[in-house]
Amino acid sequence: MLQTEYEFKLPIGYQDEEGNLWREGIMRLATAADEILPLKDPRVQANQAYLIIILLSRVITRLGGVEAINPKVIEGLYAADLAYLQEFYNQINRYGKARVAAACPKCAHQFEMELNGVGGL
What we know:
Blueprint: E1 5-15, E2 21-28, H1 32-36, H2 42-46, H3 51-59, E3 60-63, H4 71-75, H5 79-93, E4 99-103, E5 110-114
Antiparallel strand pairs: 1-2, 2-3, 4-5
């Protein structure tokens, strides 16, 4: 059976308006629509860095006792938690090799290069 949901634990946690701190959540695998539809959002068109905010708000299905995960919730995360979730997203949505062979165009030095993820990573 295909696993489509993954548990995570934020390094710091999301603090809601009542002061509750939530660290545990669930993220589901992204669909093609999850990666394409946010590109039509005016906030993303005005600022490409906002893509990850919209994307995470679509694929995080639970964050502690927070009732609805939306862009405002993701905007309220600490930078360390946002970075963690970006990496977690890339880990669960990668398929196969995440590194490719490359060569310097000037000196022909061979090396491996990690592929970029979504959201400007």
